[in-house]
């Protein structure tokens, strides 16, 4: 092997070794840029787990593979009033405390049955945990909206019909 080729290959390997750790380090920032919300990477992982609990993966893709948590974050950031955004953030923080109190571990590390029980208890005690319930309702509605508007649903599950629809000459007047 020529000396120049060996030196070039060595420099490429050294450069890759220097860049590789930067690819795997946690930045603490969410995946998408948000203008009004201040979420961390842990908050994003929590939202991902919550959305996956609401729309689990079966024979069709779930919330995690459709990245519905990003849709929820962007919709709350862009389309909600400041008061609702603050309620969302407060509910997210209180939800984390609520989960640690009930299960003594984070929502991400909880098992699927534990997650489902937690969500049922939130729906039953909506007056007691107003901020948590509001956060849960916003997340649930935006997750469902994102799923129904996803490319998978619109191409595979919804049958498209042209605007006027079909003609039915036998329809009673």
TrEMBL record:
InterPro entries: Gluconate_2DH_su3 (IPR027056). Pfam families: Gluconate_2-dh3. This is Gluconate 2-dehydrogenase subunit 3 family protein. The lineage of its organism: Bacteria, Pseudomonadati, Bacteroidota, Sphingobacteriia, Sphingobacteriales.
